[in-house]
Amino acid sequence: MIAACTAKAPPPPKPAATADTWTDPSPHQSRFVRVNGVSLNVLDWGGTGDGVVLIHGMGDSPHSFDDVAPGLTGGHHVVAYARRGHGQSDRPAAGPYDNETLVEDLRQLLDSLGIKRAVLGGWSMGGNEITRFAERYPDRTAGLIYFEAGYDWSDSTEVRLFGNLPVPLSPSSADLVSFPAYRSWWVRWYWPNGTPTASAEAEIRDISRADSAGTMSQPTDAVMDPIFRSLVSYHRDYAKVKAPVLALYAERFVSNQLPLPDSVRGKVDAWNGEAQAFRQASIERLRRELRGPVDIQILSGTTHPNFPMASRDTMVALIKAFLAKR
């Protein structure tokens, strides 16, 4: 998800308190692992065998995989983690947040967890870390799963699309007055077709921050600006990736069910058309440049902002089939 790149308010140090008694039903353990000078929050669903390591998108949380991960533990040790600057992991104001540092975080995390070889899954920005890791450490990469991440975010077409998005993907001040108001905004914009999944509920709580008065805030530019620069500055060299790839794509980047006036809806449809053309070009590049086998799947009814949290059964079935071949 890319919305957080425009946020400005400073984040308090802990997640927002909520008045309800909701608890995360996903069967993971949460702990912190010290690597490369930072503490990273790791969610561990258990399982035995080679690792499956999942990395979330920009501004998101490892809880985005809460629905999918439990279905993958048969024969694999499944974990997800919050990259530096996200969730409950450290967010050093001075960084660094470049892709090489993020990949080194990943390598040291695998070492700390005793995972010698893994299938790496990345959503959105997470596709950068896993691609570069596969370039640098082919013997430790059993496969790559791109969750709406089979794009080169440094491509000038994609950078232009980011800059011309016709809808605001950041909350207004009125949406930040309380957790219920923020959650209502989040559901309205990211789940316009239905009720959020348990994974989405866990994510919204993990990324939310509130001050002493209960007012919500977003990550600071001091953190998100360098993360966004990292996103758009890494140019992928698919020719160096030897691992098999499963590339899962959303049907649309932005939902066509958003609560918008007709004048704006037309702009969103046109923007989605450009994004879909870029998706097709990205698919063709994967097929042309990857050295290993690649399986491409476009999941009906899905969008980029909630991708790992939608179409759970279809996604798990596709991933399990991919894992069975490794």
Fold and architecture overview:
There is one protein chain. The protein has an eight-stranded mixed beta sheet with strand order 1-2-4-3-5-6-9-10, sandwiched between helices. It has 326 residues and is an alpha/beta fold. The chain has eight helices and ten strands. The protein has a single domain, classed as Rossmann fold (3-Layer(aba) Sandwich).
Oligomeric state as shown: single chain
* Gap between N and C termini: 29 Å
- In CATH, the architecture is 3-Layer(aba) Sandwich
* Strand line-up of the largest beta sheet: 1-2-4-3-5-6-9-10
- Which percent range fits the helix content? 25-40%
* Biggest β-sheet strands, sense, barrel: 8 strands, mixed
Q: Unreliable runs, pLDDT <50, ≥5 residues?
A: 2-14
Mean pLDDT: 91
Task: Give the topology, please.
Blueprint: E1 29-35, E2 38-46, E3 51-55, E4 77-81, H1 99-113, E5 118-123, H2 126-136, E6 141-147, H3 156-163, H4 179-190, H5 198-207, E7 209-210, E8 216-217, H6 221-233, E9 245-252, H7 262-289, E10 294-303, H8 312-324
Parallel strand pairs: 3-4, 3-5, 5-6, 6-9, 9-10
Antiparallel strand pairs: 1-2, 2-4, 7-8
Helix pairs in contact: 1-2
Output the keywords.
Rossmann fold, eight-stranded mixed beta sheet, 326 residues, 8 helices, alpha/beta, two-stranded antiparallel sheet
